[in-house]
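Polysaccharide deacetylase family protein, Aeromicrobium fastidiosum. Tokens?
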Amino acid sequence: MGPLRHRAARRQHRGRDDRGARRIGRTCRRRSPVTRPATADHRTPLVPGVLDEHQPAQGSAAGWPLVLYFHHVHPDVRHYTALTPTSFAAGLEAVLARFTPLDPRSFGREAVPRPEEPSVLITFDDGYRDNHDIARAILRDVGVRAVFFACTGLLGQRSAHAREDYMSLTECDALVDDGHVVAAHTRTHPHLDRIDPGRVQDEALGSIEDIARRYGPAAARLFAYPYGGIPERIDLPDGTLAFGSVRSPATPWTDHPQSIRRTYLPSGHQLLWPDLIDRWHRDWKLDDGAEGSR
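Tokens:
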């Protein structure tokens, strides 16, 4: 689906340590009937059972790209950012009715991308095999290009368990051939905010160097923190755009280019998605002085 079709549609409307996933998405793994919760503010849809700091309702800073993150597109994985193939396709359709998809390859050509209309960047974390085997075809069908933040030291590891089954370098290459970007997500997926500074640098810079050697400097410009945990001290290369999670505040990318907020479509709560997307769209249009950061 090309940009013109997206605009027309808008007009008509990861991690071995799963403790974080259990805390963030405890209810998302339940397959009981979904109900729409009551909220104190109709503009702020709340996911039941999720801590305030992990709620997805806050989107981007006004005028800046909405960034969504996923881990799996798989029929059997239970995780707060894992969707079935059908749900993933439906979620993309709903988001693309209100937001234009960004091509992440342009990030290597611009200082900081600032779209003129509500826009979304689709990202995946960790480098799981189902990203290639399942999500790839769905993204192709809707004409969306994404960033796949891969743990470069885990690529090629195979397992019968989807949460431990990673893409090979050849499969990453196939994504790049499709127009996607494969970028750095450390080498082994540690909590960067819980390890010593020396290892932080080895993990982060090592993965960035791995990506640069295979895919060039533009892809190496993008980085994502495992678990959204940003360490107090980290020296990323100048010009790096580094992405957090819902733990990061929504600020202009020019103000905090190495702690960019991402949010998510909560698994198991599809009835909340329209309200979330409406909220994200309003966030983009609320210009409360963001113009000065252009």
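The chain has one domain: 3-14+65-287.
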